[in-house]
Design brief:
Elements (H helix, E strand, L loop, with lengths): L10 H8 L3 E6 L3 H5 L5 H18 L8 E6 L6 H14 L4 E5 L7 H5 L7 H6 L11 E4 L2 E4 L8 H5 L2 H11 L4 E5 L8 H5 L5 E7 L5 H13 L4 E9 L1 H5 L4 H7 L2 H10 L1
Parallel strand pairs: 1-8, 2-6, 2-7, 3-5, 3-6, 7-8
Antiparallel strand pairs: 4-5
Helix pairs in contact: 3-4, 3-13
């Protein structure tokens, strides 16, 4: 039955097919649920998954990636939601974080945080801003800055490949502990591929049981050909009830160690 399915159901299956480590498994939960002061079980497990990923990065010490690109093979795999959640989690832990919406074709970061869509990155790269470039910064949470995509009136691929984008990344690298770039999916457009050589690490988002295996393989091949340093895969929108009764690694984060998760949520 597993072979007949088009997507990935199990961590072992994903790693065997893509040759990537699966570094996070996150349940299906809304961003609004994550923002509530009194968090439900799914939100607690979600935050614990992001905590673990942040811990893996922290363990790399001085060599940990600072400029991280989040992408996927296809739309609706959950990349923007994960990018926003990861940035928010790191900021809550005390990191200075910048989240940048580089998906000019389908920008959603502004809606996620309830921010005005423009001006944003497009205006920075086009040189259409008067005065301080940093005036486009938003701070929806302490230590978290967000730059939206802005209004697109230029070719997105050329803008992301421009010297202005390279200079922008050099500038923000000096100011933050972590910069998260939400980029378009790899197969529909090449926007993420032109950014790949400039970032420290790429996180590949794979939607549980939905992202076709062939699509994930093709996207990964294109990333490697673009000299991307793919740190690992993130499995998103997992049904926690199904995962909890499964065997092996899938069940560990969903049916074990709940006391640790709840205790951390109570302190945060």
């Amino acid at each position: 039955m597993e072979r007949l399915r088009g997507g990935f159901s199990l961590p072992e299956q994903l790693e065997a097919t893509l040759g990537l480590p699966l570094i996070a498994i996150v349940p299906d939960v809304s961003f609004r649920a994550l923002q509530k002061r009194r968090k439900g079980k799914a939100a607690i497990i979600f935050n614990a998954s992001i905590d673990k990923l942040r811990g893996q990065m922290r363990a790399l010490g001085e060599g940990r990636p600072k400029l991280v690109m989040v992408t996927s093979a296809l739309p609706k795999d959950g990349k923007s939601f994960f990018a926003a959640s990861f940035a928010r989690n790191a900021a809550a832990a005390g990191w200075r974080v910048l989240l940048v919406d580089c998906d000019f074709g389908c920008p959603v970061i502004s809606k996620t945080f309830g921010l005005p869509s423009a001006p944003g990155l497009n205006e920075i790269l086009a040189g259409d801003l008067l005065g301080d470039t940093w005036s486009v910064m938003h701070e929806p949470a302490p230590r978290l800055n967000v730059i939206t995509a802005g209004r697109t009136n230029h070719d997105p691929q050329e803008q992301l490949a421009s010297r202005s984008m390279s200079a922008f990344l050099v500038a923000v690298r000096k100011r933050y502990d972590l910069i998260v770039l939400d980029t378009p999916p790899v197969l529909p457009v090449a926007d993420a591929l032109v950014l790949a050589p400039q970032v420290d690490a790429t996180l590949m988002i794979v939607r549980w049981e939905k992202t076709p295996r062939t699509a994930a393989r093709d996207a990964l091949r294109l990333l490697y050909e673009s000299r991307a340093n793919v740190m690992g895969a993130i499995m998103t929108r997992v049904n926690r009830r199904t995962a909890a009764i499964s065997t092996g690694r899938m069940s560990f984060a969903f049916s074990h160690y709940e006391g640790y998760h709840i205790d951390r949520a109570a302190r945060s």
